[in-house]
Amino acid sequence: MAFSTIMDSNSYTGGGELDPTTDAMVEKRRSTLGPSYRLFYNRPVHLVKGSGAHLYDADGNKYLDAYNNVASVGHCNPRVVEAVTRQMSELNTHTRYLHGGILDYSEQLLATFPAEISSIMYTCTGSEANDLAVRVAEQYSGGTGVIVTEEAYHGNSALISAMSPSLGVGVPLGTNVRTVPAPDSYRIDPADLGRWFAEQVSFAIADLERHGHKFSALLLDSIFSSDGIYVDPSVLGPAVEVVHRAGGVFIADEVQPGFSRTGEAMWGFQRHGVVPDLVTMGKPMGNGIPVAAMAARPEILDAFARETPYFNTFGGNPVSMAAAQAVLDVIQGDGLAEHAVAVGDQWRSELRTLAAEYPFLGDIRGAGLYTGIEIITDPATKQHDRAQAQRVVDMMRENRVLISVCGGHGNILKVRPPLVFSMSDLDWFMTVFSGVVKELG
Fold it and tell me: Which domains, ranges and CATH numbers included, belong to the chain?
């Protein structure tokens, strides 16, 4: 299997020998689930248990999870488990009946947004939330033209997969979609990034209009997770101004940077000093229970709401709301945003100290508990080194520390653990990572 998309990066390719049990499971998975599914790592991991930032395989071996953004408040968090169990034993139904859980949660969640964002609608997945947001943007703007970044991933519905270039050539972009490069702070002067990125958006809008597609929306993940994790604050302001002048809306996809992932703010867009028109969220929202949402400025939502009845059978159901409520309570009650800042800053400080000795470790960048590590061939040229990055990932896995890669060249280590990742977990990570780097260096 050749590397071609984000789904193929760090994937099991079928090479190498597996133990009989693992080999049988891989073959059964292939025959029952089909070949589109991907597994991580050259030697897949068979997990059976989780707790906090730790995972356990079928043989009882303990792993450090430095990648998982779904179980954001820790695997099998007892408060989430208790909340879901209690609600499941009482009631689970759809949103066409009154229920206090969804209302209480919505008020608490909306209080974390700027005052301009005061409406919320629920779905089951981030894909559905982005699908809904694009439809709302189209209704408001009267256009269909959408701009995304070159390696973006926003979901897998028919509409949104056509706006997710990271899925590769087998999933072609819509004729109404244009891509712009992410603001690469490692290769572009950070002082010029805001103006430069706004120019790219302006060029894309002009191209859409030139081809008969009225501009509708700029859809962005504010930490550029799939593109390579670019975290410079205040980059988006000029681009959002361009979007509004053109009559479009800014959709902030917070599926990855949201819910205190970046530490200093609840939402990734807040680091840029902008207020989106629409905000989507998902993955970490329910700590593994499917729940997602779209929050909106009411004036943006109004045209859609007047014309389109909305109903999602499972979106916002009481059990999912109980999970989401428990997650939000843990994040706010346990000070996980502040914790993410403290651990993340210490982490990147130690990584930069190590990088000073090993030239193939390029830029170290991140915010809160989200870090990107560029693997390069030469500090002078900053040439991407996908092969070395894959070696690091596989060696970390063999030492039972789980990470992955991102970026169009597959050379950026993506480190994104649960928010409960501790200083002792950091010590574990750095001990293994330093050993791997020294062996490869």
Answer: 20-73+335-440 (3.90.1150.10), 78-333 (3.40.640.10)
